[in-house]
Design brief:
Length: about 150
């Protein structure tokens, strides 16, 4: 059973758009005592656009017993080979964990928006690991993982 789902980080997209608009206004209107010149504006806005493309969505994909996560256009990606699935649990992520790639007391968290996630405890190469994956459809992801992976 295959699974692939992408979720867009509207907060991140909006944040980067607002930052680029602010930089455009700061450069065009020459705000402040030390106004932003064109070259720094171009460098900063280009950096924000590239960063935005790298982080604007999270794609979760399950093929066989492999879980793949890819942010944005796919330059930031993670692959989890699940030898033995121990437990899956749908959880509510606290707001203060934030979004993105986070180290938490309960393991790594990969999310892009929302508070629902699937906590996956598994063994890979003999080591026990835990990962939390933010999802808009955690029930379906849980079902696919439990169907595909050895318990």
């Amino acid at each position: 059973m295959k699974y692939k789902q992408s979720q867009f980080g509207w907060v991140i997209i909006l944040l980067f758009i607002l930052l680029v608009v602010f930089l455009c206004l700061a450069c065009a209107l020459q705000w402040g005592n030390n106004p932003l010149t064109f070259t720094p504006f171009l460098v900063l806005s280009s950096f924000l656009v590239v960063l935005g493309f790298m982080l604007y969505k999270l794609t979760v994909e399950v093929r066989g017993s492999t879980l793949r996560l890819a942010y944005g256009i796919g330059l930031i990606n993670f692959k989890f080979d699940i030898d033995q699935l121990e437990e899956t649990e749908i959880i509510r992520v606290p707001w203060y964990y934030g979004i993105g790639i986070r180290i938490t007391p309960n393991g790594m968290l990969y999310s892009i928006h929302g508070w629902d996630a699937l906590r996956i405890s598994y063994k890979s190469k003999g080591k026990k690991k835990t990962v939390m994956v933010g999802s808009t459809e955690p029930e379906k992801l849980k079902r696919v993982l439990e169907t595909n992976c050895i318990k």
